Amino acid sequence: GSRSAGDIAADRLIALGHTQLDVLVLTHLDEDHCNGVPQLFRRLDIAQVVLPKGQPNTQALEMVQSLAQAEGAQLHFLADDTLQLPLGQASLTLFPPMGFGEANQSGLFALCSCQDFDVLITGDAGQFVEQMFLKYHTLPDLEVLVVGHHGASSSTHPQFLQRLSPEYALISVGYNTYNHPHPQVLARLEALGAQVLRTDQLGSITLSFRHGQVAQSP
């Protein structure tokens, strides 16, 4: 069979010399966002798991809780307060859910910053949640946006893009029958002047930040 998402991520992290994770962040508990957790726990030493409180997927939640307990990892459920974690010279800011109900709309946003380099991950949040996020949080201009919901038309509101003005737009997507990424989203990104990088076309994508410049690495 094919390798799981967890094994692919673990292979990459181990190749970079990382066998221990200070924190594993799960934006939400849809299967395609957490089905690699068992392999990550099996192959890496994970100190803490952060996930949003109130996710409706109880089976996935039980899986994460069971693994964390078995491996001695701390579980942190983010509900109301922003959580900031130091990452060497960088920092990771985790924003609590802005929506409610289904898993996609009640997930976390994650901002990773290093000097003037900023990357935002929005999980599968829809346009309403994006607008709510902008209402309550101030963000810098982005170097990189991980495009929401694999490029679905329900995410990536034009005002959201204009406010954040990313230089690069990463789309994590494989073969699918949902028309991801949607042509409307690609058109919005093109109109903004963002450079679009897609995993279905490029495979794994590595960006480096040196001397104030972002570059795609082999």
**Percentage beta strand:** 25-35%
What value does the average pLDDT take? 93
- Gross morphology is globular
Radius of gyration from the alpha-carbon trace, in angstroms: 17 Å
Q: Helical element count?
A: 8
Largest sheet: 7 strands, mixed
Helix-residue proportion: 25-40%
The span between the termini is 27 Å
Descriptive report:
- The protein is an alpha/beta fold.
- The protein has a domain at 115-218: 3-Layer(aba) Sandwich (Rossmann fold).
- The chain is 31% helix and 27% strand.
- The chain contains 8 helices and 14 strands.
- The strands form 4 sheets. It has a 7-stranded mixed beta sheet. A 3-stranded parallel beta sheet has the order 2-4-5, covered by helices on one side. Strands 1-3 form a two-stranded parallel sheet.
- Helix 1 packs parallel to helix 3.
- The mean pLDDT is 93.
Entry summary:
The protein is of the alpha/beta class. It has helices at 5-15, 31-34, 37-43, 58-71, 127-136, 158-164, 183-192, 199-202, and strands spanning 20-21, 24-25, 45-46, 48-52, 74-78, 83-87, 90-95, 109-114, 117-121, 144-146, 168-171, 195-198, 206-210, 213-217.
